[in-house]
Write a structure and sequence with these properties.
Layout: E1 4-10, H1 14-24, E2 33-38, H2 45-55, E3 59-63, H3 70-80, E4 85-88, E5 94-95, H4 99-107, E6 114-123, H5 126-139, E7 144-147, H6 150-155, E8 169-172, H7 173-182, H8 192-203, E9 206-220, H9 232-256, H10 265-287, H11 293-303, H12 306-326, H13 331-354, H14 362-377, H15 389-402
Helix pairs in contact: 1-2, 3-7, 7-8, 8-9, 9-10, 9-11, 10-12, 12-13, 12-14, 13-15
Length: 403
Amino acid sequence: MTSISVVIPVYNCARYCTQCIESVLPQLAGDDEIIVVDDASSDNTDEALQALSSQHHRIRLILHSDNLGTLRSRRDGVLASTGDYVMLIDQDDEIAPNSLNQLRQYIAGSRFDIIHFGVRVVPENAAARKAAAGMEGFLCPTPRELHGQDILKLQFAAEHGFDWHVHHRLFRGELLRRAYKACAGTRLVLSDDLYMNFIIDAYATTYLALPDSPWYLYHLGRGDTFGRALTVESFARLVQRDAKALQLIQEFVAANRNTIPREDWDDRVADVRDRLGEHMMNEWKDNLPAPMQPAALPIIQRSWASDVICAELFRYVRDYAYDYLQHPEDATRQDTDKNLTLRYLKYATDIEQVTPPLLTNIHYTQLRDIAYSHLHDARLVSSAKESAPNHVLRKIREFLHRR
């Protein structure tokens, strides 16, 4: 029987991690195993794990003496695994009953490197309940097979891509151990999913996404701060974390350009850069209170290029200017859209004046050009080509002064 190793990194999660482990235990068979990596918990997690492992010989514990972060914890667990296939589960999630048996039907006699299955979101608070349906739509993959270089090409694509979590996937053990052996031995949390998926995809040759397979139970809002507003300090950590993930990917590509032959490395890194920029700026816009946003922009500029930042600001300009055009009969809504359009435009042009963006960033130039086209149509600037910062700033200042 094909064996499965389930790797679960834990930290200060005694309340939920035993529930996670117990969702897996009844599904194990043959030489299956659970590897739990306790990342130097300071609560009673260690006691709970010791008690559970003493009752079940399939549970193997790895105990860190220092807190090393999620990347290192997953790495230690994966490299200690022996399974033909390996699954990663977060400490506060579960897998549905009979999930492993369902997955065995796809791995028996097959050589898929990655088997991507679906998610059922279990909301744990009011904010999570509002987001649950959309989150499931994003996390449940489009059924398809991918081969060779198309796996990495599509994962981070702006269209038809798929999520970059490492959970709700079953990986061929040989592949995953190779990927984690190749990753940097550094501290990284949350953004390590994206980093590792890039490496895994670079090595993978076959990918299968399953239909109707909601076997990963994602407890949204459990054990995290989902739905809470960011502070400038917590946002600064997010910015640095995402920047580090991009840097690590760039270092991986630099080290493997000659050993993993493909001609599109730069395009693939650009895809990741754009997705990280989109994620970071959406957090800035949606979860950082508006009065704090101007103070956070210099923090972003210390870690990210101006074209990455301005691309997303122009995306907001594009969207609000378009919305302004679509509702000519609603003066109140138009006034709000106009105010938001010019606010984000001012942020972008201020940054452009200080640090001119690289025009080689196609994502930036396309969003900028579409934004100015909408601005021209809305008569918020006098010409679609009139995009010099001084002209735009004058228009913005005139509008804000009138208000």
